[in-house]
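Journal club prep, notes for RB
We'll compare a predicted complex against what the paper describes. Inputs for the magnesium ion case:
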Amino acid sequence: MTTESPSINLTSHDDVVRVEDLKVSFYTQLGVVRALNGVSFNIPRGRVLGIVGESGCGKSITGLSIMQLVVAAGRTEGGRILFREDAGQEPPVNILDYGKNSPEMRKIRGNNISMIFQEPMSSLNPCYTVGNQIEEAILLHQTNDKTEAHKRAVEVLTKVGMPNPSRIAGSYPHELSGGMRQRAMIAMALSCNPTLLIADEPTTALDVTTEAQILDLMRGLQSEIGTSIMFITHNMGVVAQMCDEVAVMYMGRVVERATVDDIFYEPRHPYTISLLQSIPRLGRTKGRLASIEGSVPDPYSTTPGCSFHPRCPVAIKGLCDTIVPEETIVDAAKGHTVRCHLNS
Amino acid sequence: MTTDDMLLEVRGLKKHFPIRTGLMRRVTGMVKAVDGINFHIRKGETLGLVGESGCGKSTAGRAILRLHEPTAGEVIFNDPVLGKIDVTQADRETMMKLRPNMQIIFQDPFTSLNPRLTVGQIVGEPLEIQHRAKGTELSDRVAELLQEVGIRPENMTRYPHAFSGGQRQRIGIARALALNPSLIICDEPVSALDVSIQAQVLNLLDELQAKYGMAYLFVGHDLSVIEHISDRVAVMYVGYIVEMAKTDKLYFSPKHPYTEALLNAIPKADPRLRTRPERLQGDVPSPANPPSGCYFHPRCRYAKDICSVERPPLTDIGDEHFVACHFARELSLTGVQPLSDIKLQMPPARSV
Ligand SMILES: Nc1ncnc2c1ncn2[C@@H]1O[C@H](COP(=O)(O)OP(=O)(O)OP(=O)(O)O)[C@@H](O)[C@H]1O
Ligand SMILES: Nc1ncnc2c1ncn2[C@@H]1O[C@H](COP(=O)(O)OP(=O)(O)OP(=O)(O)O)[C@@H](O)[C@H]1O
Ligand code: SF4
Ligand code: SF4
Ligand SMILES: [Mg+2]
Ligand SMILES: [Mg+2]
């Protein structure tokens, strides 16, 4: 057996997914992008794990890797993605052992893991009605009966709070508002009662009132069906309201992982701390905002040592710029880990 | 206080877009994107403008600058040289003189800069058009402007694609600053940026205002950002301003049911303060086919009979708190609870 990384042995929960040391690179004409540089984290069953971090840090690629939907230019160069459909299942399957288009992988995508993509328009087909698209997903994996599939499609549309589900089922994506399209996407993702839902910025394009509806909806489904959720977002408000645990990513690595309470009240990584200090806090926000100096790093370059060191206010010269910090345990009981020399 | 500290007064401003259908492209309806809004901005002040997507915020900003020709209404701008002028009636020559004083920064840092011009040309263009500077004087001024927004002047000869989103937004700000405007319309200037970069740009806007005293009309949809940056805030719903007040008033004691719903829906950045906001029923109505009476009535939980019949005008209920609701004085609504102040400390620096 291979040894498992520390974050993984810590949690007492049964994990739906454990990602271990995942490495994905893109080979492009402009150079190599090391999108994931050894990503490790676990998603406890029935919980919501938030994934946060700056644009380009690898959130979407992590989600797409679990689905094996990374485009061909992106090569998986190491790591494992262990998936347990049922609690206690031994041994777990390593998703990366399956071919991208293998029957096993298609079964996982149709029955076990669903994803809500960052751009709803790109994942709904403009030429088919919303109802047709959901029915098709149901026909592919669950039943051969067309009337039954239609009935279930209308059911899931009702579940996601569509005001007039049968009318919506007959509508084309462009006839719906942004919020309705997003709900249609969610309906499609939920039509198979997934074990794991990967939601990639599901509310970013929406207004706060619609966002609140969608979050409410996802919480409901989580408590009703027990779906585990990997919730990708950059909105710390949404994280605070939705997630049980949080993994903070920076340049292709998880730099801190903790319960949502610890992330907000006991953050240890300088990047997490800076991130929290830079958001205006409702009701008490006058004066200067703390900001992270420097700019978001260039994806084609690799930074030696801790990838945050060029922007870190407390970087240690001669250490942080040369040696990559290991993942260390802050609090074993709560599964709090951090990658920073100041914490080791 | 004299009325002279008034910089901009917008009265009854409307912008309707025709809907054309069929082969003959006949006008079959109107999108009432901005439908009779009133507000004012004082010199050196920041007015935040919030509302859901499609409610007409950008259209309002553009109509003020006549980037969209207004359908009706007045836009009285207090020009430092020309005095008070109705922008909607100004002829070409007057517009040429007014333009330098009213600038705009756009949302998308990736499409709002001309990719074929160098950064120096982009920032210098307004100076050239207005014949304010040329030759070395021009490049000195551009260098100074770039420095002001935190871009190294050596970058003058590079093209926009070589810059990150936050840097491009700074370049857009430098361009808007070039002519020392007294008003800058900021149309979602930080919405496309990462939080860490957003803080840099917000701080920059603050510093520039403290230094040069220009006023901002700051359009946005992140209510925490709007609260941070604004002296006063106006809330828009389907082409109409429904509430406008000093920032604290609007956030802590809103008087319009829509404002209340918006504030309660903000996801609070504190896991110990979990809220389940009351769901707003239904979707935002289309500005091509708005409801009767108060546009908010189909979704409003306080609606009474009169609400579907009569549209409430925007009324001052005291201390510059404007509300467009028949029951503004009677309703007792809930605002935001200030978030607790979580004190976070960087770990102390160390050496090897
Ligand atoms: N098809 C691709 N070709 C080349 N590089 C890619 C490709 N897709 C992603 N990348 C790179 O991989 C890195 C991670 O991308 P990813 O989409 O996971 O970021 P993200 O964290 O989801 O960002 P965002 O918040 O902007 O959605 C980025 O540097 C990105 O430029
Ligand atoms: N050139 C145009 N022709 C026709 N309709 C338009 C035009 N520009 C805007 N609209 C419509 O006017 C309404 C208001 O649009 P506007 O862009 O002002 O909204 P907004 O509040 O800025 O939204 P967002 O937050 O999404 O930027 C929308 O219904 C939009 O579809
Ligand atoms: S390892 Fe060093 S550079 Fe990286 S976050 Fe910690 S202190 Fe900063
Ligand atoms: S006028 Fe009536 S419908 Fe409109 S906001 Fe006030 S109470 Fe609600
Ligand atoms: Mg992404
Ligand atoms: Mg807009």
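Talking point for the session: Confidence is low (pLDDT under 50) at residues 1-12 of chain A.
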